[in-house]
Every structure is written in structure tokens, then in C-alpha cells.
Amino acid sequence: MDDLSLNIDVGEYVAIIGSNGSGKSTLARHLNALLIPAEGEVLINGRSTKDPEAIREIRSTVGMVFQNPENQLIASTVEEDIAFGPENLGVPPEEIGRRIEESLQAVGMLDYRHRLLHELSGGQKQRIAIAGILAMRPRCLVLDEPTAMLDPGGRSDVLRIIEELNQQGITIILITHFMEEAARAERIIVLERGRIRKDDCPRKILYDTELLDSCGLASPPIVKLSHLLRHKGVSVGDVIDVEEMVNALCQYR
Fold it and tell me: Is the residue at 28 inside a domain?
């Protein structure tokens, strides 16, 4: 990180993008004190990650979901794995039971409560990893490339869950290299060599081709199609998803 300064408000849905080595994962690990800054300060809900007495509160506030769910699943069954976090927080057993049910319900996996983890698909395991974090009642969820190892169906399921959690008031910080995923956020932060190149709404980021090219990032397919149509004399505006494209084309005369 180099001279990086930003604020993320409660309830926001922020995507962080950048090429390999831009600092995305490093930033993510600073947000729940897995890394401590050598200079400067990271404040989570007013508490500094440099304060040893604040670490427990910070990690309860900010939950982390990593790229490979296998790195977060430690038990043999779904129920045992989700119970692990609350147990370490000293949550009473009866409350843990409620949290297991509510967390599995949130990710659409309640019917898998007693299943063995090794029987699940990659997308299902990622849902369980998210449920395990939700059981600890975080106010913010940081997801570091959570769909990178999933097939299109698994990716779609995880993104839908992320959006539903945000609608429930959980702050979402999504680190991704899929530009179409970033387009679904309210705000995109572009990192390059540990610095913020641009921090703006998706439409302004994704149509800034000069910025994306200079950062080694590719425009999403929908944006490329919009540019192609414009060159052919068909203006559909700065659309950023399939639904917007369809509506624009249906209204075009």
C-alpha cells in the first residue's frame, strides 16, 4: 500500500479491481487486521487495527471469505464447520443452533445442514464458507475473489447471495478480477501498485477505457458490445449489464 486513503460507509457495496500485484488482497487483509500497517492507520468502526485490545472486536465486525473455500472449511460436516466460529467467540450453545439455521437459510443451504463437506461442490462449499462467517454476525463482509474457482452456475449463486446480504444492511467489499461482477457494485475502486487510481461509480469506471488499458484491465463484454454498436451507428448509451442492453435495444428506433 502506498499513500492509500479511503472511507467505506456502513451498508455500501464496493468492488475493488486491479491487475495482479496491484494490492487488492493486501488491502483486504488490512481490513480485519490479518495485516497491520507499518505506517498510517486502519480504523474499523473507530477502532485501530494496531490496538491489540481491538482485534477481537474488529474481526467480529469484518468477516473474510477467501478465494478457495477449502482454506476456510475445517470440520467434517456442514453444521460443525459453521458452529466453529461462534464457539470460539463464546456464544451459548442454544444461540449457536439458531445462528447455524439462520446462516444456512441465508445462503440457501439449510437442507445440507448434516451433510459431509467433502460431498459438496465448489459452489456449495463457498456458500458454506459464507454461512460460517455470517454465523459470527459481522457487519461487514470482505470477499477476496470468492468466485474465481467456481463454474458459471456457482458464480451466479454466490453473487446473488452477496447482493441479498447487502440488501439486508451488511457492508460488502468484493475483490474481483471479473469486470462484470464489479459492475454489480455501487462503487468501484481501481488499484494500481498499491495506490488508488480511481474511485467512482461503475458506469464511469467501466467506460474509462484509457484507465482500464493503463491498468491492464479489460472492459466487460457488455461495454465492448456497446462500443461496437456505437461504431455501427447504434447508440445504446453507457449500459453496464445485459438487462440494460436489452432495454436499450428494444427502445432503439
Answer: yes
Question: Per the structure, how many domains does the chain have?
Answer: 1
Q: Say what the pLDDT of residue 70 is.
A: 86
pLDDT at 235: 86
Q: What is the pLDDT of residue 116?
A: 94
Q: Which three cell numbers stand for residue 221?
A: 463484454
Return d(Cα 216, Cα 226) in angstroms, integer.
20
Q: In this predicted structure, what is the pLDDT of residue 157?
A: 87
User: Which amino acid is it at 218?
Assistant: A
Say if 220 falls within a structural domain.
no
User: Could you tell me if 242 and 222 are in contact, meaning their C-beta atoms sit under 8 angstroms apart?
Assistant: yes
Give one DSSP letter per residue of 16-67, joined into a string: EE--TTSSHHHHHHHTTTSS--SSS--EETTEETT-GGGHHHHHHHEEEE-S
Domain that holds residue 183: 13-202
Mean pLDDT per 10-residue interval, the chain, length 253 residues: 92 95 93 93 94 92 89 91 90 92 90 93 90 92 89 86 92 94 95 94 94 92 91 88 89 74
Residue 172 lies in a domain: yes
Domain membership of residue 17 (yes or no) is yes
Q: What are 68-71's contacts with CB under 8 Å, separation 24+?
A: 68/149, 69/122, 69/125, 69/126, 69/128, 69/129, 69/149, 70/125
pLDDT at 253: 65
